[in-house]
Amino acid sequence: MVSLIPKKLLLKMYTTMLRIRSFETKVAELFAEGKIPGLYHLSIGQEAIPAGACLALEKGDYLVSHHRGHGHMIGVGLQMSKMFAELFGRETGYNRGRGGSMHLADFDRNILGANGIVGAGIAIANGSGLSAKLRKTKQITICFFGDGASQEGSFHEGLNLAAIWKLPVIFLCENNQYAFSYPSRLGCPVGVATRAMAYGIPGMKVDGNDPVAVYGVVKKAANRARKGEGPTLIEAITYRWRGHWEGDPDQHEEIYRPRQEINEWLKKDPILRFREKLLRLGILTETIDKRIKKNIETEVEKSVKWAESSPYPDPKEMDKDVFATMRVILE
Amino acid sequence: MKEITYRDAIREAIQEEMERDETVFIMGEDVGVYGNIFGITKGFIEKFGKERVRDTPLSETAILGCAVGAAMTGLRPIAEIMYVDFTGVCFDQIINQAAKMRFMSGGKIKVPLVIRTNGMGAGFQAAAQHSQCLEALFMHIPGIKVVLPSTPYDAKGLLKTSIRDDDPVIYLEHKLLYFTKGLIPEEEYTIPLGIADIKRIGDDITVIATQAMIHKVLKVAETFAKKGIEIEVIDPRTLYPLDVRTILDSVKKTGKVLIVTEECKFGGSGAEIAAIIAEKAFNHLKAPIGRIGAPNIPVPFSPPLEEFYIPSERKIEETIQNILKHSN
Q1: How confident is the model over A303-321, as a mean pLDDT?
Q2: Mutation for B interface: A39, A102, A135, A157, most B CBs within 10 A
Q3: Which of A308, B47, B129, B235 is 20 to 30 Å from B295 at the Cα level?
C-alpha cells in the first residue's frame, strides 16, 4: 500500500500526525497551567486516523466530528492559530469564542463541526449527505465518532437511514477502547464494523494506528460514496493515551484502564511506527524529521502567542448570534 | 377570500413553498405514499417526486438529524414529527443541535429548518402520549422559534414565513383544529413571526389564549358582549418571538387579564406571559392576573376525565366573571 502513495502525501500524513500531537500536547499543558478554560478531550495516540482519513478526502467534502475532534480539524487544514484562539475564548477563534473545543467548526470549508453530544453527528451527517445528493454534487460526507457513539440510538437510526437512502456518507468509528470508562469490548462485543451487516452496507475494520491503512479504506469508501453506491462503516482500532478528559483521574491512578494495557499501546505509537517505516523506506531522513518538528514547534508557539493576545468577544454582541433573522433582547 | 380548513391551509402553504423554492423538501413518517395521517401531503409525491417528498423509517432522531444537516448545507427541510409527544425520542436534535448550531458557530451558519408536528392537544381520547401541548418546552430553549396557529389564515401565513425563515422553527399544529374552517385570501400572503393577532377588540378585560383555546374564548366573549362587556382577545401566534408590546398595550388599556392555554398550567407558556405582565405592567393591573390551564396531570383517556381535564368554556366564563368583580 505504501508504495502506491506518493512520497509527498506520506510526508504530509506524517507531518499531520506530528502537528496533531503537538497541538494536543500544548492544549494539555495550557489547561494544566490554567491558561485555557473549558473541557478538553484529547486525541493523543489516535493521530493516524485523521491523518489518513482527511487526506483521502476531496476539497468541498463535508466533515462531521465529535467531542474529541481537534485532530480532524488539523487533518483537514484548519489553522492552529484560530483553533487556539477559540480555546482561549477569543473573538478571533473559529467560533468567535461562542463554542470552544467541543464545537470547533469551519463552515467556509464545509467542516460542520465537532459536537458535544455523543452520536448526534451521525444523524446530522446524513443531512449533508442528502443535501449533496439532492443538489446533485459529488460531495461526500465523512462522519467521525467513537465506540461510545456506536451504542447510541442515533448510530442505529442514522446508519439505517443512510443505507436505505444510499447516502454518500462514510461512518468512521474511532474505537479507542473506552467510552469514558466503559470498555468497548463490553459495550459492543460483536465489534462495531460487524454491525454494518445488519444495515446491508460494507463494514471494514482497520488498524487505526496506521495512517496508510486508514487512508486506503477511506479512499475506497469515498469512491463508493461518490459513485452513488451508498455508505460504508469503518472501524479503526486505536487507543486513547490520555484520560477521557483532561482531569480524568484515570490519567494518574489506575481506575478503569490497567497500566499494563496502556503500556502495551504506548509501544504501538502510531507516530513512532510511521517514522520508522518512512526512515526505512528512505522517504524521511533525520534531517528532514528535525526540520519538520522544528517548524511545528514554531507554528504552535506562534499560534498560541497570537491566540493569547487576541481580544475577547464583547458580551453585548452575543445577541446577534442566536438567530440569523433577529437579535435577542439582552436585559 | 375563500373558505378553507386549517388542514388545507397548511397543505397550501407547503405546496406553494415547494413550488416556489426547489430547496424546500419534506420528510417524515407516512408523508409520502400515505400523504400524512391527516392527509396534508396527499398527492405530493405525484407532484414533487420521491426525492422531495421523503417517506422515512420510524426514526425520529434520524429524521431531525438529517434535517439539521441538510439545513446547514443549503436546503430548507420541513421535517415532520407525527405527534408532538414523539419529540421526546429526538429531543437532542431539537434542543442541542438545531437550536444551538448557529450560536455555537459564532453566528457563521444558518439553520433554515421547519419542524412540523401534527398532534398537539387533547380532545381525541388519544391519551397521555398522543395529546400533550408541549409548547413551553420549546419556548424555553434559546435558538428556536415557536409557532402555534389557531386559524386557517394564521396557519397558512405563518407556515409560509416559517419555511422562508433562516432560523429553526417548530410549527405546532393542533389536531382538533384540522377540520375547522376560516377565510383566507385567494392571493399569496405571509404573516411575520412575532406579531400577535387581536382576534377581538374590547376594553373591559384582556384574554390571551392560544390554539384551540382561542375558539373557546371567542365564544365566551360573544356571550359577554350580549351583557355589554367587551373582551379583548389576543392570540400571540408565536411564543418565540413573543409580541410583548401588543400584550402590554392591551393590559394597560383594560387593567385586567386572563391567560388561557390548554397545556398544563404549571410551568407553562402562560406562566411566562403572566410574569412579563407582572414585571412590566404591574401598576396598570386592577386585578390579579388570571391563569387557566390543564391540571398538572397526564392527559387522561376516559371521555369524562378528558373533558374535565381540558379547560372549558364554563371555567373561562367563571374566571372572567371573578376577575371583573374587581373594581376599576
Answers
A1: 97
A2: A157
A3: B235
Tell me the per-residue pLDDT of B216-254, one tens digit each, with 9 for 90 and over: 999 999 999 999 999 999 999 999 999 999 999 999 999
Interface probe for B, chosen from A64, A161, A164 (most Cβ of B below 10 Å), is A161
A26 within a domain of the structure (yes/no) = yes
Residue A80 lies in a domain: yes
A221-273 pLDDT, tens digit each? 999 999 999 999 999 999 999 999 999 999 999 999 999 999 999 999 999 99
Per the CB < 8 A criterion, the answer to whether B91 and B63 are in contact is: no
- Bridge partners, residue B115, by sequence: B79, B170
Judged by CB atoms closer than 8 Å, whether chains meet at B96 and A157 is answered as no
The amino acid occupying position A300 is: V
What ipTM was assigned to the predicted interfaces of this complex? 0.96
CATH number at residue A48: 3.40.50.970
Q: Name the average pLDDT for chain A.
A: 97
Q: Which of A62, A141, A154 lies nearest to residue B65, judging by beta carbons?
A: A154
pLDDT tier at A3, thresholds 50, 70, 90: confident
Which chain A residues touch B65 with a CB distance below 8 Å? 120, 122-127, 154, 157-158
To 5 degrees, how large is the angle CA A206–CA A212–CA A216? 65
Structural domain count, chain A: 1
Q: Which residues in chain B have their CB less than 8 angstroms from residue A161's CB?
A: 56-57, 59, 62-63, 66
Assess if residue A325 is contained within a domain. Answer: no
Residue A252 sits in which domain range? 2-320
* Contact call for residues B41 and B32 (beta carbons, < 8 A): yes
Q: Which residues in chain A have their CB less than 8 angstroms from residue B190's CB?
A: none
Helix axes A270-280, A7-32, angle to 10 degrees: 150
Percent above pLDDT 70 for chain A: 100
* CA dist A114 → A101, A129, A271 (Å): 8, 17, 24
At residue A177, does pLDDT exceed 80? yes
Instruction: Please tell me whether the peptide bond between B241 and the residue prior to it is cis, using omega within 30 degrees of 0.
Output: yes
Domains and CATH numbers, chain B: 2-184 (3.40.50.970), 197-325 (3.40.50.920)
A328–B57 C-beta distance less than 8 A: no
Q: How far apart are CA B307 and CA A222, in angstroms?
A: 58
A97 contacts B108? CB cut-off 8 A: no
**In percent, how much of chain B has pLDDT > 70?**
100
What is the set of active-site residues of A?
240, 244, 256
Q: CB count, 10 Å around CB of A180?
A: 14
pLDDT at A1 over 80: no
| Residue A66, in any domain of the structure | yes
